[in-house]
Design goal:
Low-confidence stretches: 1-34
Largest sheet: 2 strands, antiparallel
Strand order of the largest sheet: 1-2
Number of helices: 5
Length: 138
């Protein structure tokens, strides 16, 4: 939602963009990625995703956590506003106002999906159940 902030954060923060690891992350195979790559809540200036090699601690991880929290909070506020605009009996917005709302809702949805993707990739894979463990369970 805040392109100027994203660009500034990108320019100040070194990003790890290892193509093969990033490609595996994008295809939902996070457990196969060594080194703990994290999808960041901003993109490179050309729109490509940014990844950070991290153990989950440190300045950039904290910055990413804070930005994700802010993005989700702003999305909630925007959704509340949209529901009010669309409520029965409210003034019918102009086409310009609807377009503005659609643009911001699109941006908010994009942010929320990126946060969900990033957090989903960091969920550890469940341990594999061996035949011995299955036999012991029965």
């Amino acid at each position: 939602m805040q392109d100027s902030h994203r660009k500034a954060d990108h320019e100040q923060a070194p990003m790890n963009q290892n193509g093969s690891d990033a490609e595996r992350l994008r295809h939902g195979n996070a457990e196969s990625v060594a080194g703990g790559l994290r999808l960041l809540p901003w993109t490179a200036s050309d729109g490509r995703p940014c990844y950070l090699s991290t153990d989950g601690r440190g300045y950039l991880s904290t910055l990413a956590d804070d930005l994700e929290t802010m993005q989700l909070s702003m999305s909630e506020e925007l959704l509340e506003y949209a529901r009010g605009v669309l409520a029965p009996g409210e003034r019918v917005p102009s086409s310009v106002e609807y377009r503005w709302l659609a643009c911001w809702l699109t941006e908010a949805l994009s942010d929320a999906l990126r946060v969900a993707d990033s957090r989903g990739q960091r969920i550890p894979a469940p341990p594999e159940v061996t035949e011995d463990a299955r036999a012991d369970a029965h």
